[in-house]
Write a structure and sequence with these properties.
Length: 376
C-alpha cells in the first residue's frame, strides 16, 4: 500500500529537521577570502545604489555626510550579524545537527539587531521622525527584521556552499589518495608474481645442472633492480620499459636450446633507444609473462612473437602472440594457480588509462593473441 501524502510530508519534514542535507562540522572555520569579497561587494553595491537614489530625488535629498555615516553604521552592524552567524552560531548548531538551537540563535540575533538598527538610524537623524511615534516605530520593525534575516540567510547560504565545496574537495583528495594506495598495492603484487615465475625457471635450470643458471641469476638481479628502484615513479620513458622487457626476454631465452635463438621474436617500430614517450611502469610485463607461462615454447619457428608500434599521434599498440600446445588426453597436468598478472593489469589500466585503452584477448586452437592499445 502506498504511503499517504500526509505521511510522506511528515517523513520529508523529519528528514529536513535531522539536517541530513547540511555538512556536519563543529569546527570554527575561517571565512574564505571569496566570502569576504562577495559580502562586502554586496554591501558596497547597496550603499552605492542608496547614494545614487538620493542624488536622483532632489525633493527628498538628504545630506551626503549623513547617508555615508548611516551606511557605515549599518554595514558594520550587518557584518557583525553575518560573521557571528558564520563563526559561532552555525558551527555550534547546524554543524552538530541541531536545528532548534539554530532557530533560537537566529531569533536572538534579530532581537539584538533590530534595536541597534533603530539606534544607528537615530544617531544620524535619518529615522528620528520614525521613532518618535510608536505606531511608525512598530512599522519599521518588519523592514529591519527582514534586513536582519536576509543577512543571516545570506551568511548561512554562503557557509553551506563553502562547506559543501570543501567537503567535495576533501572527498576528491581522499579518492585520489585511495587511488594512489590501490595503485601502490597493485604494483607491489607484480614483484612477487614475477619473482615466483622467474624462480621457477631458474630452478628448472639448476635442476638440470645447466651452465645457464648463473647468467639467469645475473639477469634476475638486473630485473629486480629495475623493479625496486627505477619503476617507483608514475611513468617511465618507453625506452626504459622496453629495456627492462628485453632483459626479461633474454632471461627466458636461457630456457631454450641453443639451436632455437629466434624462437622468441620482438619487433619494435617507431621507437628509438632514447624514446621518451611516457608509459606506466611494468604495464607490458604481465602480457609477456603469460605468453611464457601458458605458451608452447617448443613451437617453431617462432614460439612467442611480440610487436610494438608507436604512432606519431601517441597511440601505442602492443601485441603478444604465443602458440598453445594441443591438449594431451593421455597426460593430465596438475592445475596451476594463475590469472593474478592479467587481472592486476586490467585493474591498473582502468585506474591509469580510463577510457583510453583497449585490451583485446583472442584464443584460437593453437594460438593465443593479446593486443593492448593505449590512446594518447
Amino acid at each position: 500500500m502506498a504511503p499517504s501524502p500526509t505521511r510522506s510530508r511528515r517523513a520529508r519534514l523529519r528528514a529536513f529537521s535531522r539536517l541530513d542535507w547540511w555538512p556536519r562540522t563543529d569546527e570554527v572555520a575561517s571565512v574564505p577570502l571569496w566570502v569576504h569579497i562577495l559580502f562586502w561587494g554586496v554591501l558596497f553595491l547597496l550603499d552605492g545604489l542608496m547614494l545614487f537614489y538620493n542624488q536622483a530625488n532632489p525633493k527628498n535629498r538628504q545630506p551626503q555626510e549623513m547617508l555615508l555615516l548611516r551606511a557605515l553604521l549599518t554595514d558594520l552592524l550587518s557584518a557583525s550579524v553575518f560573521y557571528t552567524n558564520w563563526v559561532l552560531l552555525i558551527p555550534r548548531t547546524l554543524g552538530r545537527g541541531r536545528l532548534g538551537p539554530y532557530i533560537g540563535g537566529v531569533v536572538l540575533l534579530l532581537l539584538v539587531y533590530i534595536p541597534l538598527r533603530f539606534g544607528a538610524s537615530w544617531v544620524v537623524g535619518g529615522a528620528a521622525e520614525d521613532v518618535r511615534a510608536k505606531g511608525q516605530a512598530l512599522e519599521m520593525i518588519i523592514p529591519y527584521g527582514i534586513m536582519g534575516l536576509m543577512t543571516i540567510f545570506f551568511s548561512s547560504g554562503l557557509r553551506v556552499t563553502g562547506d559543501y565545496l570543501g567537503g567535495l574537495r576533501n572527498r576528491r583528495e581522499l579518492e585520489h589518495q585511495q587511488l594512489l594506495t590501490e595503485l601502490a598495492m597493485l604494483k607491489t603484487q607484480i614483484n612477487p608474481h614475477f619473482l615466483f615465475n622467474t624462480l621457477n625457471n631458474i630452478y628448472s635450470l639448476t635442476s638440470r645442472k645447466s651452465d645457464k643458471a648463473p647468467e639467469a641469476v645475473l639477469r634476475l638481479s638486473e630485473i629486480m633492480r629495475y623493479l625496486l628502484y627505477e619503476s617507483s615513479t608514475d611513468t617511465v620513458p618507453l625506452s626504459q620499459e622496453l629495456a627492462h622487457l628485453q632483459s626479461f626476454l633474454d632471461l627466458q631465452r636461457l630456457r631454450l636450446p641453443a639451436s632455437a635463438p629466434d624462437a622468441i621474436r620482438f619487433d619494435s617500430e617507431s621507437t628509438s633507444p632514447d624514446c621518451a614517450h611516457p608509459i606506466a611502469p611494468l604495464l607490458l610485463l604481465p602480457l609477456v609473462e603469460n605468453a611464457f607461462k601458458h605458451g608452447d615454447l617448443a613451437a617453431r619457428p617462432v614460439a612467442v612473437h611480440i610487436s610494438l608500434v608507436l604512432q606519431p599521434s601517441g597511440r601505442l599498440t602492443f601485441r603478444v602472440l604465443n602458440h598453445v600446445a594441443p591438449p594431451d588426453e593421455l597426460r593430465q597436468l596438475p592445475e596451476q594457480p594463475g590469472g593474478v598478472g592479467l587481472s592486476n593489469l586490467r585493474r591498473r589500466l582502468a585506474l591509469l588509462y580510463p577510457n583510453r585503452y583497449v585490451l583485446d584477448v583472442q584464443s584460437t586452437p593453437g594460438q593465443h593473441v593479446v593486443t593492448l592499445t593505449l590512446l594518447s
